[in-house]
Design brief:
The protein has helices at about 15-25, 45-50, 55-70, 75-85, 90-110, 130-135, 145-155, 165-175, 185-205, 225-245; strands spanning about 1-5, 30-35, 120-125, 160-165, 215-220. The protein has one domain (about 1-45, about 115-245): P-loop containing nucleotide triphosphate hydrolases (Rossmann fold), CATH 3.40.50. The chain has a five-stranded parallel sheet, with helices on both faces. It has ten helices and five strands; from the N terminus they run E-H-E-H-H-H-H-E-H-H-E-H-H-E-H.
Length: about 250
């Protein structure tokens, strides 16, 4: 079961992902987690399980899987490349976005293997988060038509956890962490970047195709531990339903 976390920077994705991984492991579940700072035993090599270690070696390792993904989802890849050409950004920034998108595609295909079928695969910023890469900019307003097209074409994980916080909250958290996107060059751009991200994710949350897989959480008024506990209950229920269908 592939479970992805998405949402704007500062929404708490990594925190909730880590807490959920710990909760599932304590319950005896087989967990494969891909998020910052996860050091638990894993069948994944270090270069694939911690985004802090993603580099050119990660790109090369995933390249065959990225190519396989492109063959299986050609229309989605064509859409993504088309959107990349429309982004108002210098060539170096576009190259960084392309590398990030390629990794997400390759990783999604890699994790779809039967080897991981019996595990809870938790991914902080997976295939659905490509929307943030290609549709969110500090300079250009997101296109509702492009968001709808993305939702219609993107291959879906089994579950997607969308964490939402107000722009002011996300901005304050990022300021405390000092962890700003290289695409953001000023405080004003940060506000626009976060506001545009919220618009994109609200659009995805409203997309009929995504609704069956999407769990939308208000991460402003609910503690991370409470959110992780609720998601844990939903995932266990999903697994029990799946077992019931097989029996």
């Amino acid at each position: 079961m592939i479970v992805e976390f998405l949402g704007s920077s500062g929404a708490g994705k990594t925190t909730v992902c880590g807490l959920l991984a710990e909760r599932l492991r304590r319950a005896g579940a087989n967990v494969v987690a891909i998020h910052h700072g996860d050091h638990a035993p894993s069948p994944l090599p270090p270069s694939l399980r911690d985004p802090d270690r993603f580099d050119i070696r990660t790109d090369l390792r995933l390249l065959p899987w990225s190519l396989m993904f492109a063959m299986r989802h050609a229309r989605f890849v064509a859409f993504v490349l088309g959107q990349l050409t429309r982004i108002s950004a210098p060539p170096g920034e576009k190259t960084a976005i392309l590398r990030s998108v390629g990794r997400k595609m390759g990783l999604f295909q890699y994790l779809c293997r039967g080897k991981f079928a019996g595990a809870y695969v938790l991914v902080d910023e997976g295939i659905l988060h490509i929307a943030h890469n290609i549709l969110v900019s500090p300079r250009d307003l997101p296109s509702a038509k492009a968001v709808a097209r993305f939702a219609a074409l993107v291959p879906l994980p089994d579950r997607a956890i969308l964490l939402c916080v107000p722009v002011a909250t996300a901005s304050a958290r990022l300021g405390q962490r000092g962890d700003l996107s290289p695409r953001v060059r000023s405080a004003d751009e940060l506000q626009r970047f976060l506001a545009n991200a919220r618009t994109v994710f609200d659009g995805l949350a409203d997309a009929p195709r995504l609704r069956p897989a999407l769990i939308d959480h208000d991460a402003q008024n609910h503690p991370a531990g409470e959110i992780a506990a609720r998601i844990h209950e939903i995932l266990i229920a999903d697994r029990n339903v799946a077992r019931g269908h097989l029996s």
